[in-house]
Structures are given as structure tokens and as C-alpha cells.
Amino acid sequence: MEMRMGSAQTGGHFPVQHRSLSLDIKGNKTDIVISKYEDNYLVIVTQIGCMGTILTAKKDESVFSDPTYNVSVLFGKRDEPLLLACARRLIEHISHSGSARPLVISLGLKDHSQGTLKDVISAIIENRLW
């Protein structure tokens, strides 16, 4: 895993608690902003300098079965299963940490490989606000 940490900053509670960082993932400068709103988490990951595919993920609870995770694309590439897997992995981590907030994530990546997405997930979890 070739991941070099750049700068990381944590913002206060106004207007919203957030953390931002820049790092190198597989030779691409990657900017990540993690924000904690009252009703959800927003994660923006970009290697292209703008928003990318925007997904939403949430945990659906049922009295009769184990919880399920609903992930869907709001805008962008609908034919990228690894982007869906990334959002699913993060919402699973969020819910296992005890939070019920849903996730909105924007992934603007040059490289959609499994290795890049694993590094992105690791960086987000290391810097999580949940």
C-alpha cells in the first residue's frame, strides 16, 4: 500500500464538525473531507479536483432479520461496482461503530482499482468522525 499522509486538519463544531486531509494514493494526490452533520455523514474524496460519483448508503433495520445495507448512486457512474462496494464497506463500519447516521459519499477518482479504493477506505476510517 503506497499511501503517504499529507496534511490533516480537524474543524470545530461550527458550522459542522469536519476533518480534511491530503495524501498520495497510488501516485495520485487525493483530497478527503469528512463532515459530521446532525443527520448524516458526508465524505468527499477527489483526485480530479471536483465532485465525482455521489452515492448514498444507509442501514435498514428489521425486527425479523439481520440488518441490511442499502447503497445507491445519486449522480454519476452507475456501472462501477467497486464504488458501491466502497460505500457499503463504510456504512457497515459506521453502523458497527454504533452510529445510525446514513452516509453520502462523493468519489471523484482517476483510478477506480480495488487497491485505490482499499486505500481510500483505510484513510477515511483512520480519520473518521463516527
Automatic annotation (TrEMBL):
InterPro entries: Proteasome_assmbl_chp_3, Psm_Assembly_Chaperone. This is Proteasome assembly chaperone 3. Gene3D superfamilies: 3.30.230.90. It comes from Lolium multiflorum. GO terms for biological process: proteasome assembly. It holds the Pfam family PAC3. Transmembrane segments: none annotated. PANTHER family: PROTEASOME ASSEMBLY CHAPERONE 3 (PTHR31051:SF1).
